[in-house]
């Protein structure tokens, strides 16, 4: 929970851009454009002992004022899974693609829904207790999942916007990812803050 409190600090770092929103001219709607930018997030899998931060980059295409597309790649630091006789740390590199449906309430306040798919490269490192279990060793795997959520994009002008969103990831790695342990699941909650620079 203490880590989760730090996430709003990322948004705070970009508050200087907010002054541009007050001085930007009318007609600053973001549409029919492409943007790229950094993002920071917090991910907590349901079966993990605690969550972890992650960082990455996202690219968004705004196809008019309502429809958008997003691609993203991140690096997630390790989360520990207590698997009974042993534990494992799991790091991930997710590559995701999402569809965004915007509700253009105003030029400076645009909520959206998000749905998409992802490929997750999992790096599983077992603790010392696992060394005594035959056939169980550090492993890498690729799993596929999907996500649903909602968010808010806050344009400061035609070229800059802050976005904040929540997503739930549905990601079951399968029983072979942790040997014979079948109840470990990577599904969980994700909070993301991103800064977009549109062309």
Automatic annotation (TrEMBL):
Transmembrane segments: none annotated. Residues 1-21 form the signal peptide. Keywords: Signal. Residues 13-196 form the Outer membrane protein beta-barrel domain. InterPro entries: Beta-barrel_OMP, OMP/PagP_B-barrel. Pfam families: OMP_b-brl. The keyword Signal applies. It comes from the Bacteria. This is Porin family protein. It comes from Fodinibius salicampi.
